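tmp note - Branched-chain amino acid ABC transporter permease
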Amino acid sequence: MVQYLVFLTISTGLYALFALGLNLQWGFTGLINFGHVAFMTIGAYTTVLLSLGGVPIFFAVIVGIVGASLLGLLMGASTLRLREDYLAIVTIGVAEFLRLVAQNEEWLTKGNFGIQSYPLPFGSFQPNFAGKLMMIFILTFLAIFVIWRLFINIKKQLKGGKEIQGKSFQFSKARDVYIKGFITFLLVLITYINGVIALYNYTYKSGLMLLMLIALVGVYYGLDLLVHSPWGRVLKAIREDEEIPRALGKNIFWYKLQAFMLGGAIAGLAGSFYAWQFTTIYPSSFESLITFNAWIIIVVGGAGNNAGTILGSVIFWAYESLTRFISDNYDFITTAQLSSLRMMIIGLVLMVLIVSRPQGILGKKGELSLGK
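out:
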C-alpha cells in the first residue's frame, strides 16, 4: 500500500505539473492549446537522449526545458498573431508530428521499441541512515511550508470575503473556506506520513517522489508569485479582452508568447519526470489523450486557479485508482469495457460540472468570460 501511494503521489504531482503549464496558457492567458503533450515529448526525449550520451542529468533536464520553451517560441511566433483557432490547429499538428518523428526515426529514438536503461535520478543511490533522515527532513520542511502557505491563504480568503461583502459575509462561505482548507491539510498529512514511511524504507520511487514534490512546490509557488504580479494581471486582462491592455500600451503578442513559452517549459520539465517514472519511453506514451487529461484536470479544478489544478489532479487520479480496483475485484466487466465506462463517466461529470459550476471547483466565476 505504501508503494502504491508513492506511485499515486508521483502520478498526481506529474499531471499537476503538466497541467499547471496548460493552466498558465489557457486559464490565465486564454490561449487554446490542444497539443500540450508536444512540450512533454521534447522534454522527455531530450533528457533521456542527452543523459544516455553522458550529459549529467541536471543539465539534460535544463536543455529539455529550454528545448520545450523554444518549441513554444516557434509555435507561438507563427500563430499568436492570428485567430485562436489557428493556434489550436497548429498545436495538435505539432504534437502528432513529433510523435510520428519519434516513431519513425529509429536511429535516434529506437521507434516503437522504445528507449530503455537510461540514467535515472537516484537510480543507484542507496542512502544510509543519516541520508534517509536528511531526505525526511526535506520532506518535513516541504510539508511545513505548504501548511504555512495554506494558513495564509485561508486568512486572505476570509479577510477578502469580509471586506467585499461586509456584514453579509455568510457563515456558509466561511465554512466552505475552512472545509477546503481542512481537506487540503488532510491530503498533505497523508502524503507526508506515507512519504516518511517510504523514505525510511527507501526505494528508487521514494527518491523520485521527493524530487517530484520539490519540483511541484517550487513551480506552484513560483507561478503563484507571477500570476499575482503586474505581469500576471496583464495576462488576465488579455484573457478577458485583449483590446483593453492593448489600448494601455501593452505588447499583447509579447505577453502571449511569454506565457506560451513558460507553459511549454513547465510541460518540458513534466516530460523529464514522465520518463523517470516509467523508466522506458515509447512514442505511444505521448498521445493526445495526455493533453485532454490535463484539460479535464483544469476544468474540474477551476481554470485560472493553480490550487484548483492541484485539486483537479488529485480528483483525477483518485477516480483512476477507484475504477481500477473495480476491474481487479469483479468479473462482470472487462478491461476494454471499463476503459469505455471511465470515459463515459468523465464525460458525464464534465457535462454536469460545466452546467452547474462552469468555473470549476475552486475557480472564480466572475473572472471568466464564460461566467458573464
